[in-house]
Design goal:
heterodimer; A: alpha+beta; two-stranded antiparallel sheet; 6 helices; globular; B: alpha+beta; elongated
């Protein structure tokens, strides 16, 4: 085998390795949120969360919502060194918690109560004290007050992996209405994610804790 | 795929990787380049075999315990031995809050890779738990600066101005939300730019002095000295990188962790070792350590360890001596003067027996042990009047005394060598001093540390009967009292020559050099420091042993000595 051929093969091999490691961003199909293999789904992927008609509009801006909402009142994260004001989760975080707080069955949707509860491993419960706070405004003022948070209006981050990436400010890539929510770290649809199935549908590479250090200037 | 396309791809990938690395290092160099990066990319020897996540070793976004600061490690719980000292006003209990979470690695009991978010501990290279060494505090925290103490205004006030009020801690040194002092007051686990993760660099003990405001310190030589180690012997500052006394400051004597002397966090458990590390000729100019070895008479700092207590009363009852019984290392300066700088800021006992925080005369230091303390040894000379309380001996109400606590009684002392006069006041150190120091014409350090002449005398003072008179044998007396003057015929006591030269009677046989207490003696019988050595001077054949003063240069003795019966002998 010629040297050039050997080199070419090595390069192809290396690229393939990188691609298989990083290109987990993709589609919801086959992801942790693909419910089509669950008996209750009737082979449908989206049904647990979405409906094309008669959607639940209780939560403002809920995207054609189909899942039964949780009525839980959450115990919130608090810390003496926290500068942000944490309120009851809203928006996207409340949608996530309709399954992940473990009070409503995963298959409670379309007005019909189900019985399949989320696994203990993926359940956060209603005590969110031990979880990273969500539902707080993360702006330049907070970064200044904290002293070890990046300015979300200028600090950039790349989300996703492989061919599905986006780069922009923290504000554009991670925040929703200027707030930190569950979907700041997680991409529920597996579009801009990093890591294989079962690693949490995170949007930024956890190696080197880049996902933490995107915001935390440590 | 053509080779050209491959090349472009390869170049692109490499460029991307390079850019990624650069961005990462610029933005987050602080933590990642510190030993607290326990991931495989960490700089220390202690790090994960393959785990790439950094924050994970301490933090988790979900199911944290304790919830703040999203902690990912087990509670080391345990029962720690807290710091304790007799002068501490705050009681350090079991560690809480931030200190407890630090100990989940730093007590060495929990594997570093044992995190809550993993069912199997992360595999570490270079050791499972914190290995023995400076970073492993163990569960005995009695040799570490106390933590989890309530740092209240009352606590600060109880330290009498030597501890900053908590309201002043507005900078990098902070208390926790409960007003407690924790590890995080001094350490920022995310930022190692000051080394040892200190919140501010401790050069010249700037960090220590945020809270500790020691009296006298601002003018102390230990704060100001630019002296360095000459490289001989042991490194005086093994736990710092600073190279001068001033830059080491507190840490010349103290260390905040793993202290050899647990109480007061001293570098060494043997008290004098903390001083010898510099005062051995290798940092400070004079070698004080040598003064305490191989000399006939020393202040015995080496014979006790752990007896000295900074909280002990002014009048020392459990008699002992350490360097700090006479010196205040926070105050000492190298100045000379009536009260030498070495005795600056030292507490003592006044002539009236009252404790004072800052002596104004040297004898007040000596009175701590040589006056009202219990357990003093009996006198070296067996005398007619027995008194071993120097405060009583030097009392200015006494019929006679060497003028230490005040001007003397006798206005007729013709033997005095200038500049001494009858209105002079002297110091204990004029007699009790280094036999190789400047007072004796030597180059050794000043002060009664050690001497070739007991009891710690600057010059020879022979007390043995039948000693041939010579300048050397009574050198101590002749320092101030003119030998040729009073040994000639005539003078104040014309028979000095007969007694001292011809009869070979030491000065000490008739004179009690300190003084005779007014509670025991009187002006008639005990002026001129007369208090006989009863092993030499006996009652006369009539059973009388007495001196009577009969005015200037006149007196009579009733005694029997060297075979001569005085009944009386008058002059």
């Amino acid at each position: 085998m010629k040297l050039t051929q050997l080199l070419s093969k090595a390069v192809v091999g290396a690229i393939m390795l990188i691609v298989t490691q990083l290109a987990c961003a993709g589609t919801i199909t086959g992801s942790a949120h693909d419910f089509s293999t669950s008996a209750w789904s009737g082979g449908r992927i989206c049904v647990a969360c979405h409906t094309p008609h008669k959607a639940d509009t209780t939560i403002s801006d809920a995207p054609l919502w189909n899942h039964t909402n949780s009525t839980a009142i959450y115990t919130l994260y608090s810390s003496p060194t926290l500068n942000a004001t944490v309120a009851q989760p809203g928006g996207g975080s409340k949608l996530c918690l309709s399954c992940h707080d473990g009070t409503v069955a995963v298959n409670s949707f379309g007005g019909v109560a189900g019985t399949t509860m989320i696994s203990a491993e993926n359940k956060l419960g209603t005590n969110l004290k031990g979880s990273h706070p969500v539902g707080f405004t993360y702006d330049k003022a907070l970064a200044t007050a904290d002293g070890s948070l990046h300015d979300p209006t200028t600090k950039t981050v790349t989300i996703g992996s492989g061919t599905q990436t986006r780069t922009g400010t923290l504000n554009a890539m991670l925040l929703y209405g200027g707030k930190m929510e569950c979907d700041s770290c997680h991409d529920v649809h597996n579009t801009f994610t990093v890591g294989a199935k079962g690693t949490g549908l995170v949007k930024v590479d956890p190696s080197g804790s880049k996902i933490c250090l995107a915001c935390h200037n440590k | 795929m053509s080779a050209r396309v491959l090349k472009k791809l390869l170049a692109g990938v490499l460029l991307g990787l390079l850019l990624g690395l650069l961005c990462q290092n610029v933005a987050i160099a602080g933590l990642l380049t510190s030993k607290h990066n326990l991931s495989v990319s960490g700089p220390g020897t202690l790090k994960a075999a393959s785990e790439t996540q950094v924050c994970l070793f301490c933090h988790t976004p979900h199911n944290a315990s304790p919830s703040a600061p999203l902690w990912n490690r087990r509670n080391p719980g345990g029962s720690y031995v807290p710091y304790a000292s007799s002068t501490a006003r705050a009681l350090a209990g079991q560690p809480t809050g931030a200190s407890l979470v630090c100990l989940s690695c730093h007590d060495g009991t929990i594997a570093l890779g044992d995190v809550l978010s993993r069912t199997t501990p992360i595999t570490m290279g270079g050791g499972t738990a914190m290995p023995a060494g400076a970073s492993n505090l163990g569960t005995d925290l009695s040799d570490d600066h106390p933590v989890s103490i309530n740092y209240t205004p009352a606590l600060a006030a109880a330290h009498g101005g030597e501890l900053a009020d908590p309201s002043t801690l507005t900078g990098k040194v902070k208390l926790d939300a409960n007003g407690q002092m924790q590890c995080t007051a001094c350490h920022d686990p995310h930022d190692d730019k000051n080394a040892k993760f200190l919140v501010v660099a401790n050069t010249a003990s700037a960090l220590c002095q945020t809270c500790h405001l020691k009296n006298y310190w601002s003018s102390s030589s230990h704060r100001l000295s630019s002296a360095t180690w000459n490289g001989v012997g042991s490194n005086p500052w093994p736990h710092t990188t600073a190279t001068t006394v001033a830059d080491n400051a507190c840490e010349s004597c103290h260390r905040p962790h793993s202290a050899g002397g647990k109480q007061w966090l001293l570098n060494y458990g043997i008290e004098e070792s903390n001083c010898y590390s510099c005062h051995n000729g290798n940092v400070a100019k004079k070698n004080l350590q040598a003064e305490f070895t191989g000399k006939a008479s020393v202040h015995p700092v080496a014979i006790t360890t752990g007896v000295h207590d900074a909280a002990e009363p002014g009048v020392v009852q459990n008699r002992h001596v350490e360097c700090v019984d006479c010196h205040n290392p926070h105050a000492a300066v190298s100045a000379s003067g009536a009260l030498p700088g070495a005795l600056a800021g030292v507490r003592g006992i006044t002539a009236g027996g009252t404790e004072i925080k800052q002596v104004s005369a040297e004898y007040q230091v000596c009175y701590r042990c040589h006056a009202d303390s219990n357990g003093k040894p009996t006198g070296r000379t067996t005398r007619q009047i027995v008194q071993n309380n120097t405060r009583m001996e030097f009392d200015t109400l006494n019929p006679s005394f060497h003028p230490v606590a005040g001007v003397g009684k006798n206005s007729n002392v013709p033997s005095l060598i200038a500049p001494w006069t009858t209105s002079s006041v002297m110091k204990c150190g004029d007699c009790h001093n280094n036999s190789a120091g400047p007072g004796a014409g030597g180059v050794g350090p000043k002060g009664p540390h050690g001497s070739n002449w007991a009891p710690l005398l600057e010059r020879q003072y022979v007390t043995t009967d039948k000693t041939s008179e010579s300048a050397a044998n009574y050198a101590l007396c002749y320092k101030c009292h003119n030998r040729s003057g009073f040994l000639k015929d005539g003078g104040a006591f014309s028979d000095h020559k007969k007694h001292v030269v011809e009869e070979k009677t030491p000065c000490n046989v008739c004179h009690d050099p300190h003084g005779v207490s007014s509670t025991q003696g009187n002006a008639t019988n005990n002026s001129k420091l007369i208090n006989f050595d009863t092993t030499v001077v006996k009652p006369n054949k009539s059973g009388i042993l007495r001196f009577d003063s009969l005015g200037t240069n006149k007196g009579r003795c009733y005694l029997s000595c060297h075979g001569s019966n005085h009944n009386p002998f008058s002059y």
